[in-house]
Design brief:
By secondary structure, the protein is of the alpha/beta class. Helices cover 49% and strands 14% of the residues. The protein contains 17 helices and 13 strands. The strands form 3 sheets. It has a 7-stranded parallel β-sheet, with helices on both faces. The protein has a 3-stranded parallel β-sheet with strand order 8-9-10. Helix 10 crosses helix 15. The longest helix is centred in the first third of the chain and has 25 residues.
């Protein structure tokens, strides 16, 4: 049994990508029913981890209680006093489990102060809590901590393609990556591609372990969870069908300008229905003035902004295809979720997403507008897309957040127990 701390402080209130990874990791670690102790370190006033813990433990207790009742024979007459004792035992079990999972809301909300607190405050917190291993899930790590540190690196674009990021971020994250490579006890890479890049560019002194993300197969399902759900979501978001969809932050490396050009090219050539719209669902990143101008000039391209996670399955499910033209990602979570809901997926050849989806996706040969247009046209072929959709569902079933959480837990134990031995 080990005691693990996890940094939750860099998870934004409207999480995407790496933020969703941390949320899903927290949720599924609670659901694993291990005997290990967890301390989550969050920003002041951020109650999301506490809410996750309460929900997952409540669900777990309910499932165990139902199993025991059914095992004892639900039809048997029960003394009312037995029912009271039963509820008291369940509450006691819940409270014991609640002490196993704790959240400390101690970090400042301001980004600069949060990064300072990671270096100044974290070592004291880890020492006071008796932590065996600490997980930093977003590139950085507390330099002065006296416990083994595991760092997750999501991609290496700060080194390979600095033009895709703000200069100050490039300078900061290059230092973080270099330090983690030299001083972390283990590094988590979210894909084999990222692992190869880490080993090539950073020459790490520790083991690099590939732990892929997962997909919530119940949520990202081809069928709506209740009748009328999809219609109500589309009405709420003021979206009319048919449409193609992009999900992700709007920023240069996502290659959205080429996507828009390719989509409009198909409409000009009348190769797709003139009623089609292109929906962009994601928050603004940086360097998008030209992109915003393109959107304003076209009535066929609609920008939704950040979309709540609960609406994403509907948006994907009701689309005629999800286009993910990003030139480089660490993993590409929306691609996996697209396969899970059962709609055509268009990606760029050679990207992580293309490797993830394999023959289940439609690949643009390059990230050019012409090649993206050709891949979209192919994806809208009903006969061809049906075969790939079925294959995509099979691919998605190979990934789960529960499996990802278990692999993280295995690594926590390996690193912690290795340092003790």
């Amino acid at each position: 049994m080990v005691k693990v701390s996890i940094d939750f402080c860099a998870t934004p209130m409207n999480p995407v990508g790496a933020g969703r990874y941390v949320l899903e990791l927290a949720s599924n670690l609670v659901g694993l029913k291990s005997e290990d102790d967890f301390v989550f370190i969050a920003k002041k006033g951020d109650s999301r981890v506490d809410e996750i813990i309460e929900y997952e433990l409540g669900k777990r207790n309910d499932e165990e209680a139902i199993t025991r009742i059914e095992g004892a024979g639900a039809s048997q007459e029960r003394n009312p006093r037995d029912n009271v004792r039963f509820r008291d035992l369940e509450l006691e079990k819940f409270n014991l489990a609640r002490r196993q999972f704790r959240c400390l809301q101690v970090s400042p909300n301001n980004t600069a102060l949060r990064l300072i607190y990671e270096q100044v405050g974290f070592p004291r917190v880890l020492s006071n809590e008796g932590i065996d291993v600490h997980h930093s899930p977003h590139y950085t790590m507390p330099v002065f901590a006296k416990v083994p540190i595991i760092v997750t690196i999501h991609d290496t674009t700060f080194i390979e393609n600095p033009q895709w990021h703000l200069r100050r971020k490039v300078l900061m994250f290059r230092k973080y990556l270099s330090y983690a490579a030299k001083h972390a006890s283990a590094i988590v890479a979210v894909s084999e591609v990222v692992k190869r890049n880490i080993e090539k560019l950073l020459n790490p002194k520790c083991e690099v372990v590939v732990i892929p993300h997962g997909v919530d197969l119940e949520t990202f399902n081809p069928s709506e969870s209740r009748p009328g759900l999809d219609e109500s979501v589309l009405k709420l978001l003021d979206i009319n069908e048919p449409y193609l969809l992009y999900v992700g932050t709007l920023e240069p490396r996502k290659n959205i300008e080429s996507l828009i050009e390719g989509f409009l090219q198909l409409k000009r050539c009348k190769k797709i229905d003139q009623d089609f719209k292109l929906i962009l669902a994601g928050r603004d990143g940086w360097k998008i003035s030209n992109l915003n101008s393109m959107i304003k000039e076209s009535r066929d391209v609609l920008k939704l902004g950040y979309v709540k996670e609960e609406y994403l399955p509907t948006l994907m499910r009701r689309s005629k295809g999800v286009i993910y033209p990003s030139l480089e990602e660490g993993f590409g979570l929306p691609a996996l979720e697209t396969l899970s809901v059962g709609v055509p997926l268009v990606v760029v050849k050679g990207s992580v997403m293309a490797g993830l989806a394999g023959r289940a996706s439609f690949c643009a040969q390059t990230g050019s507008s012409n090649d993206i247009a050709a891949a979209i046209e192919e994806a809208l072929d009903k006969i061809e897309s049906r075969q790939r959709i079925d294959l995509g569902k099979t691919v998605a079933q190979g990934y789960s957040w529960k499996k990802s959480a278990q692999l993280h837990l295995d690594l926590y134990r390996k690193v912690a127990l290795g340092m003790k031995s």
